Amino acid sequence: MSDAMIQVRGFLLHITHYDPAWNANKDKEEPFNLDIGLQVIDAMAEAGLNLLMIDPKDGVRYKRHPELARHYSQDIGILSALRERAEKHGIETAIKLNFSQSAKHRHNDWFRPHNDLFDSPEYFKLAFEVIDELLGVVKPPRFFHVGMDEDHDRSYGQYVDAIKALHAGLSERKLRTLIWNDSACWWRQSAVHKDKSLAAEKAVPRDVIHVLWDYEDWDKDVALRRIREAGFDLWGAPGGKPDLVATMRDRLLAVGGSGILLTSWVPCVPSRKDALLSRIRSCGPACSR
After folding, report:
1. What is the CA radius of gyration of the chain?
2. pTM as predicted
């Protein structure tokens, strides 16, 4: 077996999140716990991970856009504390927001009330004001993840155009754009998401990094090979089972993929501390050979 190693081995840490399960508890959501977040980074270092992807959304207060603050939002300085702990361990930082449009999944509700502007020039102007404030605090050297999974509300052309607009602004800021790639999804209702990812593969700039999420080994290696053959850098998001992480790792290495992004869709609060640390300790080592 080859001694090659996945170059980027990351963990996605939510300051907050938006999906149907999280949204049901938004009125009672606890704020992000910084002490546990720092323990997560320490565990990442022990597990051999080298990228912290911070997902702040409206979990922090923005100076330029105070209207985005919610009851659980905290001072944006907590992101500096996370970056500094990561730097102490030699772990790179990156940022993730989500600009998907879907009345069902509501990944972009963090941007309320501006999400209703729907890809207008004003929408992207406001989006990059938020992005720039985050860049000033987190200072990511290479990567910015713009989400874009489970988009219902855009047409295929609008979906591609939105990625291109976000990519153009991030390229001006010398950052690589990452997007979720939904094309491994297999359930019937996901077909529209899968087809939009296939449309993006044909039309978005080739320096966009596709992060294929496949939490149950739905697709085997079909999508991985197709994305690489189209000329894109490729990461995988294999979910929370160590055996599937190892399978994704080997398949990525076989096609020249360069990254794994571990995910845990739970809040960083005391009641979920053990779940977060367990995910890192069980799955982190499986990212490496």
Report:
1. 18
2. 0.97
